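Sequence, please.
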């Protein structure tokens, strides 16, 4: 299966050049023009690696790194910048960035860094999956199963895949049955940043809607995600358990 890579750069020429280099090597590449759109993409799709420009208007590279580390910690990140400094390099490494490259990096440098990052991604994910001490699976009374590591819900031959954000939200619900969460609390737990209650409602509404749509094929899960008017959401405790 092809690795999913996103290239994030506000400069069209640099974005296109990087994307072309990676596509020629057989990678599945999505080009994105700013940090906000990059974060939204990671919330909704599985991403193995991000090539990320450090200096961008709006959300800069380090802002994106901090959010991605919360919502998709298995995603590897390579930072690229034309304005290198010791301070930004140290900050990047402190934030679990795989590599820090100065522009213009040669195609050989880029491809070498990408290969090492993807090798590390496979190793890290493999180690997590092989660790027996932590259970990432919830088995429900009707026989359906939620695998939070793979972000899948299965029931017999039926399988539904979740995005990283949907998986994080369902994880919070499954681990806290019967607890009422405010919109603001859920955004902080799922997305990794704090916003106002009004903003949180706007962020959560489409996310919960997408999750409910996918849960509709699994009635034992779907019926337990309940909106609490004016407050947030509750994942009701299993009354049959």
């Amino acid at each position: 299966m092809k690795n999913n890579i996103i290239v994030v750069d506000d400069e069209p020429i640099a974005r296109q050049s990087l994307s072309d280099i990676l596509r020629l090597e057989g990678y599945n590449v999505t080009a994105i023009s700013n940090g906000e759109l990059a974060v939204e993409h990671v919330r909704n799709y599985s991403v193995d690696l991000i090539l990320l420009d450090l200096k961008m208007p709006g959300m800069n590279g380090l802002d994106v790194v901090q959010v991605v580390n919360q919502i998709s910690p298995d995603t590897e990140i390579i930072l690229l910048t034309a304005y290198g400094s010791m301070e930004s390099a140290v900050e990047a490494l402190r934030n679990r960035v795989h590599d820090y490259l100065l522009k213009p990096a040669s195609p050989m440098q880029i491809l070498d860094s990408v290969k090492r990052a993807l090798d590390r991604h496979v190793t890290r994910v493999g180690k997590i999956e092989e660790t027996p001490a932590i259970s990432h699976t919830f088995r429900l009374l009707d026989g359906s199963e939620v695998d939070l590591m793979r972000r899948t819900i299965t029931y017999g031959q039926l399988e539904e895949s979740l995005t990283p954000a949907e998986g994080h939200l369902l994880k919070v619900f499954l681990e806290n049955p019967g607890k009422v969460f405010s919109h603001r609390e859920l955004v902080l737990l799922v997305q990794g940043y704090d916003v106002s209650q009004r903003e949180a409602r706007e962020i959560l509404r489409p996310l919960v809607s997408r999750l409910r749509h996918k849960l509709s094929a699994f009635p034992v899960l779907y019926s337990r995600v309940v909106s609490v008017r004016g407050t947030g959401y509750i994942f009701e405790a299993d009354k049959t358990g």
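The radius of gyration is 19 Å.
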